[in-house]
Records
---
Amino acid sequence: MSTTSEPLPAASPSRGQQAMPGINAGRDWSRSFWNLVILAGVIAALAISWGPAEMGRWTFLFTDSANMAEYASGFLHPDFTDWRYYVQEMIVTVEIAVWGTFLSLIVSIPFGILCAHNMVPWWVLHPCRRLMDVFRAIHEVVWAVLFVVAVGLGPFAGVMALFIHNTGIMAKLFSEAVESIDPRPVEGIRSTGATRIQEVVFGVIPQVLPLWVSYTLYRLETNVRTATILGVIGAGGIGQVMFESIRGFYYPQSSAILIIVVVTVVLTDLLSQQLRKFVT
Amino acid sequence: MTAIAVENLCKRFGKKQALAGVDLTIGKGEMVALIGASGSGKSTLIRHIAGLERGDAGSLIEILGEVQQKDGRYGPKMRELRGNIGVIFQQFNLVARLPVITNVLCGILGRISPWRGTFGFFTRAERIAAIEALGRVGIPEVAWQRASTLSGGQQQRAAIARTLVQRSKILLADEPIASLDPASARRVMDVLADINRSEGMTVLVSLHQVEYARVYCDRTVALRDGKVVYDGPSDALSDSFLTELYGAAYEELVLPQKLPVKGEARPTGTREPVDRPVVGARKKTLQPA
C-alpha cells in the first residue's frame, strides 16, 4: 500500500530523511469495501429481477415492431371535430387538479411541520409520519374507487382522491424542507420570548416558502396528469372521454384528445415555471 | 440589584465538559465583557443565560431575581424571562427573507397577545417604534429591504434594533463583532455602549479580542476550559497576565495593533471619515504579520 513513498527519499536525497506518509495513510478502507458491496447488491437485484420481469422478451420490440406501427398509424390522423367538448372536459380535469392540490396544500402545511424531526417530539412525529405513509402508500385510483362509493361517480370523487394521496406526498416534501432549515434565525425569534407557533410563523415558514411553493406547483402539474387517469375509473373529465373513445376503437378522436392532454401538461409546466421564478 | 446570577453552571456535551461550574453575578446596568479563546465556553455560557440551552444537574440561573432554570429544568416564567433578554449573535440570526422591519417587529412578540403576534397584526405605533429603533442604530432607510441584502454590520445593527423594540432589560451579545470588518465592529460596539449608557440596559458581550473589552467595558470575565479564571477590571488585564492565563492561545486574543482609546475614535459628528483611516491603518500593520 505504501510502496510509492519508498523510492522518493532516494530520488531526492537533498530533501532530508523525512518519512513521507504513504499515499493511503489514514484512508478508510471500510468505505471502499461498502461501495463494492452496494455495487454488488445493485447488480444482484437486477439479475434476480430479469426473469420475473420477463426482460427476455425485449427482442419482440424489434421482431414485431410492425404491429406497433400498425396500431400507432390509427392515431396519425387526429379528428378535432368535437374539440370544444374535449377542451371543456380538459378544463374539468384541470379544475379537479386545482381543488385537489389546494385542499392538500392547506392540510400539508400543519402536517409538514408535524412530520419534521427538528420541530416536534417523537411521540408527535411518528404518528403523523405513519398517517402520511398510509395516505401516500394507497394509490389515487384506489382512493378514487373508495370515494366513488361514498360520493358517487364524478369529479368530486377525483378531487377527494387527489387530496388524500397528494397530502401524503406534500407533507413529506414539506417536512424535508423544514428539516433542512437554518436553526439560527429560529433561535433569534425564540430569544424574543415568542411562542412555538410564532417561531414557526416568523422563523421557519419564511425559510421554506420558496421550496414549498415550488413543490406545490410541481404537484399541481403531476395532479393534472393524474386527474386524467382518474377519469378512466369514472371520476369525470377528459380521462373518461379518452378511455371511452379508445375502448370504442375511435383512434382519430383518441389521438385528438391525447394531443389536447399533452398541450395542457406543457402549458401547466410553462406556467408553473414562470410562477416559480416569480416567487423565489 | 442583580440582573444575572449564575451558580455552579455545568454543561457536558458528550465527552466534552463545556462548562465546569461557572459562578457569575452581574448587576443591573453593568457592561461586562466575556473573553476567552475558541472553545473556552463563551457561547455556551451566553446560550444558557439566554435560555436556549439547559444546564446539567446542580446548575442554577436567576434572571432579575426569578429562577430561569434549575437542575436542567426551565422555570415557570421562562418565556417571560426570554422576553426580558435580548440576544444578538455572531451570525446575526435574522430571518433572511423577511424585510428588516418585520425582523425588528419580531422583538415585540413576547410582549403582545399571542394571537395578534402569530398573525402579524402589528399596530401603527409598533411599526413607528420599529422604524425609530432602526434610526437609533443608524439604518432607518433599510426598513423594507430583505434582511439578506444588508451588509454584516447593518444586519448586526438590525438585530440590536430588534432587542430595542423588545424593550429587554438585559442584552446578551455572543461574539457580535467576530464576523465583521473593523469599521463595522466599532460601530456595533459604539451602539452597544450607547444603549448601555442611555437606557441603562445590562450588557454582557462575549469578545474574541481583549482590546475591545479594554476600550468598551469596565469589567471583564475571562473563561478557560469552561471555568471563570478572571473576573475584575478590564484595565488590569495586561498582556503578560493574559499570556499567563492562556499560554499559546493568547495570540488568538489580541489584535496586532492597539485600538484608539474611547472617545478618540469619534471626536465630532460624522462617523465615516473617522472610521476609515482606522481600517487602513490596521490593514497596514496586518500585512507584515
Note: Chain A has a mean pLDDT of 87.
---
Amino acid sequence: MTAVDTARPATGGRRLRRPRGLAAHMILVVAVLISVFPFAWTIIMATNTTQDIYKSPPKFTFGSHLLENIRHVLNTIDFFGSMLNTVMVATVTTVLVLFIDSLAAFTFAKFDFPGRKLLFGTLLLFMMLPLQLAILPQFILMSKIGWVGMLKALALPSLANAFGIFWLHQYIQNGVPDELLDAARIDGAGFFRQYWNIALPMIRPALSFLAIYAFVNCWNDYVWPLVVLTNPGHVTLQVELAQLNVGHTTDYSMVMAGVLMAALPLVIVFSIFARGFIAGATEGAVQGT
Amino acid sequence: MSSPPVTGSAEVPQRLGGPGPARFRPRRTPPTGTARPRRRGLLSYWRQYLAISPFYLIFAAFSFFPVFYSLYLAFQRWDGMGTMQFVGLQQFRFLWDDPVFWLSIRNTLVIWVLSTVPTLFGALMLATLLHSVRRFKGFYRIALYVPNVTSIVAVAIFFGAVFSNNFGLVNAILGVVGISPIPWLSNPWLIKVVISLLMTWQWTGYNMIIYLAGLQAIPNSIYEAAKMDGAGPIRTFFQITIPIMRPIILFTVIISTINGLQSFSEPQVLFANNAANANLGGPGQAGLTTLLYFYQSAFLNNDYGYGAAIVWAFFVLIIILVAVNWRITTRGRKA
C-alpha cells in the first residue's frame, strides 16, 4: 500500500488531482448510501419480527422472518389481485400511449395542416397546468358514464399524455429526415406506411424511454386511483398498500414486507433498463429548454 | 416480401403533377411547377386529422373541457347529487376567510421551500462532482436516480416508520446517543421537515441527472480558456458554469415549483393512520397541503364547488410563484 502511495505522486499532475477525485468519490458514495439506505432498511424490517424492530437499540441485521411476513401480507390484503390490476392498467396504458402519442407526434413534426400551430400550442399550454385542475370534473364525468370503480376509468385520462407528444415531436423533428419520408412517398408509401415503416423504427430509443416513463408513472400513480376506485375490494397496488399501512400500524414488519413486495419489482425492472432511460430523460430535458 | 409493385412508380408523376386528389404532403417540400390550387379543402387533410384525433378526443374530454368545467364549478354550490346552484363569488369569498385554506397554503409553501432548496443545491453539487469523476459514472447515475422511480406510497410508509415517534429508527439511534425521543410526526414544524426530507430524497437524483446533461454539453475549451486566464475552480464554477447552465436551472426551478407545490400523496399516506379524525394532514393539520385540503373538500365532504374554488385559487398561486421564480432566475442575465 505505502509503496503505491509514494510511487504515485511522482507523476506530476496526478498528484494534485487525486485527492480531489477521492473527495468527490467519497461524497458521491455517501449520497448513494443515502439514496439506497431506505431499500436496505426496508429489507431489514421486512425480514425481522415487529418485536425486533421495536427493540431499543433495534436490530441492524437481516432476519429470517421474511416468508412469514409475506404470508401475513397475503392474508391481509389482496396483494396479487391488486398487483394484477396495476399490471393490466399500466400495460394497456403504456401500449396505447406509445401508439397514440407517436402517431400524433409524427403528424405534428412532419406535416402541415390547418390549425396545426393552434392545436400544438394548446397541448403545450396544458402540459404546464397542474393535473388537479381537471381531476374533479374527470371524476364527475366518470360517474356520469358509470365508470367509477372500474379499471378502464384509470387508463383513459392518462392516455392524453401531452408530455409524450411534445417529447416525441422534438425527437422526430431531428431524428427522422424529411428526405427519407419523401423517398418513401415516391415509392408509393402512404401516410400510415411512412409512419409505421419509416418513422417508428427510427425513433425506437425515444419510444423505449416513453414506455418506461409511462409505465412507471402508471404503476406509481396514487391520487387518481384513490379518487376513482371507490370499491374497496377492487383497487390498484398503491391504494392497497396505503390501506395496509392504515389498518396495521402495529405490525411494522408485515407492512414493510408489503412495501418491499410492491416497490421492488419496479426498481429491478428500472435498473435493467436504466442506462437507456436516463440517456433519454436527459436528452428530452436539454432539448426542452 | 411485398415489395411495391412496378405500377407504383409509374403512378408517381401523375400523383405529383396531375390534378388528381392532393395527397399528404411534407411540410417543407411542396411539389414544384404544378397547377395545384393554392388552398386545399380541410377534407384533403383527413389523414392528419385522423392521426391526431385519438389524442385530441381524449385530451378534450379529460383535460381541456375539465379545466374550464372546474372553473365553472367554482361559481356553483353542488354536492354532486342534487341540483347545482349558482352562487357567484361566494365560494371565493368563503375561501378568503377560511383559516384552514390559508393554513394549507402556508404548509404547502413551507414544504415547498424546505424541499426545493436542498434538492436543487444538492443536485447541482452532486452533478458537478459526478461530472468531475471518471469511474463508476454509470453506477452513480442509476443509484442516485432510483429514488425517483420508487412509489410515493412506499416511500411515505417507510418515512413514517423511520420517523415514528415511539419506535422509529431515528429516535432509536438518538436514544442510543442519549437524546430523548423527538416528536417528528406530531410537532408542526418537524412534520414539514419530514415531508420535505422525503421529497428531497425522491427528487435530488432526478434534478442531478438533468444538471449533469447540461454540464456535459458545455465544451471543454471554455474551461481551458478560463484556466489559462488563471481562474480557480470556484471562480470557474460561479462565473462560467452557472451562467451557461442558467436555462437548465430555470427549467428545474419551474418543474420543481410545479411539482413541489403539488405535494399530496406524501402527507396523505404519512398521516392516514390518524384518519379516525375528520381532519387530514396529521396533528394540528400541520401536514395539510392545499391539494390535500382540496381532496378533503371535494371528495370527502362532497363540496364540489368549494373544491373547485380551492384548486383554482391554488392554480393562480402556482402561476404567481412560477412568474416570480422566472424573474429571479433570469434577472442576472441583464445585469
Note: Residues 1-17 of chain A have pLDDT under 50 and may be disordered.
